Amino acid sequence: MKLDVWHDAVELNTVVHDVLHQGAVEMKIRGQLADAAQSVASNIAEGYSRRSVNEYIQHLYVALGSLSEVLTRCICLKETGQMAQAQFDRIDSVHYAVENRLWRLVRSLQEKRTTGAWVDTIAGAESSRVPKE
């Protein structure tokens, strides 16, 4: 929960939720878009919790896929008149921030994997949430 990208993804979910409840978006698409937006932050968190750098990176790629789904669905909603330009711009702005931070995190993790700097064990991880024995 300390990662800025995770906070940005939660903000994206909040913005999508707000926009969906302001407009006249079909129920099925509303659910699909809400699920995709929520999936971004969820996959960032789940990947980190796996502790394996390879699994973490894989979950970040899934988050990027969900992020692309969010933007594509919003473009379609805008093009069909179900979302106003201002609403789309608001989502697009947060989307852009999340996407850039996700790519930087992927690159950073790939570098740590290459150099061996990633710690796969909880015992080696610095975390205030890990109980001490």
Features:
de novo design (two linked rop proteins), 133 residues, mainly alpha
Write a structural description:
The chain has about 130 residues and is mainly α. The chain is built from four helices and no strands. Helix 1 packs antiparallel against helix 4, helix 2 packs antiparallel against helix 3 (about 55-80) and helix 3 (about 55-80) runs antiparallel to helix 4 (about 85-115). The longest helix is centred in the last third of the chain and has 31 residues, at about 85-115. It is elongated and about 50 Å long. Residues about 130-133 have low confidence and may be disordered.
What does the main sheet amount to? none
CATH homologous superfamily assignment: 23S rRNA-intervening sequence
Overall number of domains: 1
CATH topology: de novo design (two linked rop proteins)
What oligomeric assembly is this protein in? single chain
**Radius of gyration from the alpha-carbon trace, in angstroms:** 17 Å
Under the CATH scheme, which architecture would be assigned? Answer: Up-down Bundle
Distance between the termini: 24 Å
> SS-based structural class?
mainly alpha
Principal-axis shape: elongated
Number of strands: 0
Tell me roughly what share of residues is in helical segments.
over 70%
What's the rounded overall pLDDT mean? 88
Query: What percentage of amino acids are in beta strands?
Result: under 5%
CATH C-level category:
Mainly Alpha
